[in-house]
Amino acid sequence: MTQPSPLYALATAAAVLFYYGVVVRTLGEPLMRHAHHIIDSRSTIARSWSFAELDGVIRLVLAGGMQAAFLAILLLLIPMSLTEVLPPEHDVALLLLAAPLGLAEAALGTHVAYIGLRIAEHLLPGRTPTSIEGWTTVARGGWVRYYIKTATVAPKWLLLTATVVYVAGEEFVFRGVLLTVNGAFPTAVALGLSVVLFTVAQVFYTPGWRTAMFPVLGAIVVGLTHGTLFLAVPDVTPLIIAHAVMFLVTVM
Question: Which of 43, 44, 77, 171 has the maximum number of C-beta atoms within 10 A of its C-beta?
Fold first, then answer.
């Protein structure tokens, strides 16, 4: 990439917010209805799955496809090469450490979430669940419920593929693209902007602050960790592996 400019960084940040905040809602729902219509009329799957199960699978697959399309558009508009975030040769040691990193992030995210729920219980007595089971029910609301539906009924290969595609898109967008174009800013500012945008993207489609709390805390853990690692070694591949492992362990 040529020397990054603040204009490219701010324009890219605006495009990310517009996509996750507006495009996903306005374009995603019509596409969902169209996909439902096609599958209902042409596939035997619709007769073996409930509407909610089918809806969860379609939403997860569609989310990954739309995010991949958005990333492709970004790469067309921004003067950067994929080799800047996806080098032709990878450090094998980093790839081997990716899965343990994901497990560690899942553990840390769970611990941070536990602290968060205890703080919420203290600050808002009577307005929050009073048991771990109650918080677990809340945490499985919002967009997470679509993933759980997919995990329940879809073949494992489809679940794994959809997971990797979606988290790969997030790593490319929020680490690869944003941290590359944010090179015009000081390192702390570039990292902070990436984490903030990644966190905000998690709450657009959650029904309330209780449901949003867990994705937000998880996004802060992943955003800070992966952003710091990418700035040290600009390769999204181990980050994709770690993110997928962390996501599967946490949600499942």
Answer: 171
Nearest Cα to 112, choosing from 201, 53, 199? 199
Determine the straight-line distance between the first and last CA of the chain, rounded to whole angstroms: 39
In a domain, 210, yes or no: yes
Question: Beta-carbon neighbour count of residue 2 at 10 Å?
Answer: 7
CA 148 → CA 85, 160, 171, 201, 202, distances in Å? 31, 13, 22, 20, 17
Residue pair 183/108 in contact (Cβ under 8 Å)? The answer is no
CB 230, CB 236: distance < 8 Å: yes
Domain that holds residue 105: 6-251
Helix (H) or strand (E) holding 39: helix 24-42
Type of residue found at 171 = E
- Residue 97 inside a domain? The answer is yes
Q: How many residues would you count in the chain?
A: 252
Instruction: Say what the pTM is.
Output: 0.88
Contact 96, 204 (CB under 8 A): no
If residue 116 lies in a helix (H) or strand (E), which one and from where to where?
A: helix 92-123
Residue written as token pair 């449901």 = 211
User: pLDDT tens for residues 87-134?
Assistant: 888 889 899 999 999 999 999 988 888 888 778 777 777 666 666 666
| Domain assignment of residue 156, yes or no | yes
CA pair distance 117, 120, nearest whole angstrom = 5
